[in-house]
Structure formats: structure tokens, C-alpha cells
Amino acid sequence: MSDSPTSVASAAPCARFRVVHETLYTYQSIVALSQQYLHMTPRSFPYQRTEAHSILIEPAEEETVDGTDYFGNGTRQFAIILPHKSLRVHAESTVVLLPRLGLERIGLKATPPWEQLRTLMQQDKSAATLEACRYLYASPHVSCSPALEQYARISYTAGRPHLDAALELCHRIFEDFEFDDEATDISTPLEEVLLGRRGVCQDFAHLMIGCLRSLGLPARYLSGYILTHPPVGQPRMIGADASHAWVSVYCPDQGWVDFDPTNRCLVQCEHITLGWGRDFSDVTPMRGIVLGGGEQELEVRVTVTPLPLDA
């Protein structure tokens, strides 16, 4: 959104969280070499700052390189040359969130017509527009198609304000699609998700992004976590949370505005951002190669814990 870093930094924090993200690979046979690339470092930007962050790797890595990718996200690369039958990566972070503009202050109906933004993306050469163009085209997991454009145009009628239409599109995806963690995997084409009307947060984020890009509008993929709420009277369960994905929509006056189609909401103070890119492939939490190992089992445990703001 368009608040300057100075004005946001002067605002009182709205939330503080500890996030523990643990990944455990167990291999059938010995792994002689493992090389991995991580996106497990929370991103610091005007609406989020990282107070503490650490990554523990077992067995201990021989080579480690911390860096920044093309999109400005923090990364870590490491190699393990010690023979091993399991790999554990334990990332722990403390982050503070700062308040974003709510629906009443964004003024969704006052944003420019979406066709105006589409024309701007084709003609304007300013730095902000050129940066947004990174997220305008098809990418490995997000296709552009007439079917996606047709679905989007139910919300994106002629002359409708861009962010007003984006909010309705977010709500429609929530209403039209059912959350089903067995219906898809990372290789499921977006066209199948559209036809089957089932999937997970990653699918719904990709779907909304594909709809917008099919109209000629930029949108980016956000990877991170969301605070979940246990049933009334039940304790918060350790390791029961999960990674999450949502969408950031570009509008020149407001900047990037985040929508969560899985939860039918404008992102406020319960989403913790790891990073952003064109789609999941740009911000995969952990990917790499191993030499040996045979069959493998994967266990992922995520815990998001609210912390006092004054600690």
C-alpha cells in the first residue's frame, strides 16, 4: 500500500509473533551429498520487521551462503557432505507487524477503473510501473487464458474501480472453490483447478493471480504464514499450523494491496510474510538436490505463536 515507510514506522505495532518452521526429511538409504536452497527468512518491509531469526541445520552444513534473490527476498544456500539418513531444518523467527490500511481507508471504489491500469502498464515507463511489470505475465505455475479472463470479468465489469473488483474476485474464489488438500498438488495445472473448483491456498492464490494477469493487470504471489485460531476452549497445538499463500494486487496510488482468497479477506495483522515472487516456484521454502537417499519421507511442522507487544 502507499503509506510511506516513515509514516508506517511511526505507527504502533499491531501484532508480534514467533514462528517456528521445522522440516524433516528421512531417507531410506544414505545420502552422500545434499545441496539446498531456502526461502525461510521473513522479509522486512514497511509493514513487517524481523526482531530475531535463526536457522538450525542438522547434520551441520559444510558450506553456507546467505543472499538475496531477484525479488529481494532473503535466501540461504547450504551443502552437507557428511553421509546422513535424515535432514532437519529448524527456522525460528520473531516478527512485528505494523498496521495496514483497512477497507474504509483504502477507498476501494475511489481507485481508478481497471482498464486505466491496464493501459498504464502498456505505456508508462516509470520505475514503479516497470517493477510491477515483473508480475504481469505468465510464469511457471500461473498461466494466462481466455477461461481465466472470463472468470475474472464477472467481477471486472466495464469501468469498475480496480481494487473494488479485486475484492469481489477474492470473495468469489472463496465462495466458488472448496478447500481440499487432497484434490491437487504442485503440478496440477491452473485450468484443472478452475474446472474442479477445489484446491488449497497455493491454488487459490495462483488462480486469482492468473485471472488478473489474463486481464493485463499485475499481481504477485506472497508466501508466509497465517495465525490460526483453535476451537473455543482448546489450547493452541504445537506444529499444527502450515505455510500459507495469498496475493498482492498493484494499484498506482495505493501501491501493493494484499488479498487472501482462501480466507476471503484483506490482509491486516495476522499474515507473516516470508517473501514474494511471480508464483510458488520463486519462493519455495526449501528445494534442492540429494545424491543417494532412495525413497524419502517429509514432515513439516509450523507453529505461529502470538507474543505480547511490549515484551
How are the secondary structure elements laid out?
Layout: H1 5-9, E1 15-38, E2 48-58, E3 63-68, E4 74-80, E5 84-97, H2 103-106, H3 114-123, H4 127-132, H5 146-153, H6 162-176, E6 178-179, H7 190-196, E7 198-199, H8 201-214, E8 219-226, E9 243-251, E10 255-260, E11 265-266, E12 271-277, E13 286-292, E14 296-306
Parallel strand pairs: 6-7
Antiparallel strand pairs: 1-4, 1-5, 1-13, 1-14, 2-5, 3-4, 8-9, 8-12, 9-10, 10-11
Helix pairs in contact: 5-8, 6-8
Provide keyphrases for this structure.
311 residues, alpha+beta, Immunoglobulin-like, C8orf32 fold, 2 domains, seven-stranded antiparallel β-sheet, five-stranded antiparallel β-sheet, globular, disordered N terminus
What features would you describe in this structure?
This protein has 311 residues and is α+β, with helices and mostly antiparallel strands. The protein has helices at 5-9, 103-106, 114-123, 127-132, 146-153, 162-176, 190-196, 201-214; strands spanning 15-38, 48-58, 63-68, 74-80, 84-97, 178-179, 198-199, 219-226, 243-251, 255-260, 265-266, 271-277, 286-292, 296-306. It folds into two domains: 5-97 and 284-306, Immunoglobulin-like (Sandwich), CATH 2.60.40.2250; 103-282, Roll (C8orf32 fold). It is 22% helix and 37% strand. A hairpin with a 5-residue loop joins strand 3 and strand 4. It is globular, with a radius of gyration of 20 Å.
